[in-house]
Design goal:
Blueprint: E1 2-4, E2 10-11, E3 27-29, E4 71-73, H1 75-81, E5 84-89, H2 99-113, E6 117-121, H3 125-137, E7 140-146, H4 152-160, E8 164-168, H5 172-184, E9 189-190, H6 196-202, H7 204-212, E10 220-224, H8 229-243, E11 252-258, H9 263-269, H10 296-305, E12 309-313, H11 315-329, H12 335-350, E13 358-363, H13 371-376, H14 388-396
Parallel strand pairs: 5-13, 6-7, 6-9, 7-8, 10-11, 10-13, 11-12
Antiparallel strand pairs: 1-2, 1-3, 4-5
Length: about 400
């Protein structure tokens, strides 16, 4: 069953619908299977380990073995901050970002519905993932990208996997409005996070976190927020396991936005559930450069319901955290991912995160998603002759 989160109107799972026809609000899929957590034992470590909680026909699954991503204990950085820190490395998914979880479910649902064309608007990762999963399923893929606003690594992925890529003269929000209009005309099946089935895949991050911790909830989950689907999806996943009796507590959901694209933080600081869109969002973190996130209501409810928090970080703090995580813990992430680490450091300084807290930071995309940023952050290698004496002198020095 699909249900409006505002007015409660219900729809069939077989209905192609993106927002409530009565009130215009966003929708969510209701999934409450009656199973024991023992059923997950000895299964392969992918997100489909939890298939009973995935509301699609398992005979039509389209998968690239997504999920089961590394859950890395970061003792050095955690010790410096005075916390118990884990990092969930979503850049290890097949196309290099957490989007693969949602696309596996979304494309599976598209196969169930018998659609021939799927589409999305994207700042990069969504298009890269959709293109790969559409290729896997053998269906047509159309993506709209904001002109000049997409990292090269992501653009190359979308095109290489065969998507029909159109560059829109405008920002992400304008691209999303355009592709949504095409979807409502029935020209394609929309797979942005306004599609409630997308978040059903992304909620598996929450499943894996509590499973990795031995069926316990961390004190806090911190993650970057752009279009706001991921924070609400993880909260939904953890809550489903909580309601099933698998865990006793739930984490404080903490969202981090860039200073130049922070409508959710602005709303949170005012105690509101409705955002004021930012007309021209700007940040080096392209994956979260979104001024009118479609899942803002879900995200704010997740933050409020979990007694969580929302904060902004500057581009300088993001780039510093990106380098710190790579050099301190060996985890290379794109700028948007580093927002969670930058936010953690800021919240520790502010006293929002208490000493001794168990914190999980979600890093959402691989370092090479945005290669230019990585290259620009590096210095030119020192060029020397292949002479052992000169090399030894340099190394000693």
């Amino acid at each position: 069953m699909i249900k409006c989160i505002s007015c409660g109107k219900e729809y069939s799972n077989d209905e192609i619908i993106y927002t409530c026809t009565d009130c215009g609000s966003v929708l969510e899929v209701i999934c409450n299977p009656d199973v024991s957590k023992d059923i997950f034992s000895c299964r392969k470590q992918t997100m489909w380990k939890y298939k009973e909680f995935m509301p699609v026909d398992e005979t039509k699954i389209v998968s690239l073995e997504e999920g089961g991503t590394p859950f890395v204990k970061c003792d050095k950085l955690g010790s410096e901050l005075g916390i118990d820190l884990y990092v969930k490395v979503e850049g290890s998914n097949p196309t290099g970002s957490f989007k693969d979880r949602g696309m596996s479910i979304g494309i599976t649902k598209a196969m169930e519905l018998g659609v021939s064309t799927v589409g999305c608007a994207s700042t990069g990762n969504t298009s890269a993932s959709l293109a790969a999963y559409a290729a896997r399923a053998g269906i047509r893929c159309v993506v709209l990208l904001p002109s000049g606003k997409v990292a090269l690594g992501k653009l190359a992925q979308a095109m290489f996997h065969g998507a029909e890529v159109l560059s829109i003269k405008g920002n992400f929000d304008e691209a999303l409005d355009a592709i949504t209009a095409l979807a409502l005309e029935g020209q394609l099946y929309l797979l942005n996070s306004v599609n409630p089935f997308r978040l059903e895949g992304q909620k598996s991050i929450g499943f894996e976190i509590v499973d990795d911790l031995g069926w316990k909830s961390p004190d806090r989950v911190i993650l970057p927020v752009g279009n706001a689907g991921n924070i609400s999806a993880i909260w939904k996943g953890v809550s489903e396991f909580y309601e099933a009796g698998f865990i006793e507590d739930r984490p404080m959901m903490t969202g981090i936005q860039a200073e130049g694209a922070c409508p959710i933080v602005n709303a949170y600081q005012k105690g509101k559930t409705e955002i004021e869109a930012i007309e021209n969002p700007e940040t080096v973190a392209t994956a979260i450069r979104i001024g009118a996130p479609v899942s803002s209501l879900k995200a704010l409810r997740a933050i409020y319901d979990s007694n969580g928090h929302a904060e902004t970080v500057s581009d300088e703090e993001i780039l510093s955290a990106q380098k710190l995580l790579a050099q301190k813990e060996g985890i290379g992430v794109e700028p948007a991912s580093a927002a969670s680490i930058a936010g953690l450091m800021k919240l520790v300084d502010q006293g929002v995160v208490d000493k001794g807290e168990q914190v999980v930071c979600i890093v959402t995309g691989h370092l090479l998603k945005d290669p230019n940023i990585a290259i620009n952050a590096c210095v030119e290698p020192l060029e020397v002759e292949a002479d052992i004496n000169k090399l030894s002198e340099i190394i000693r020095r």
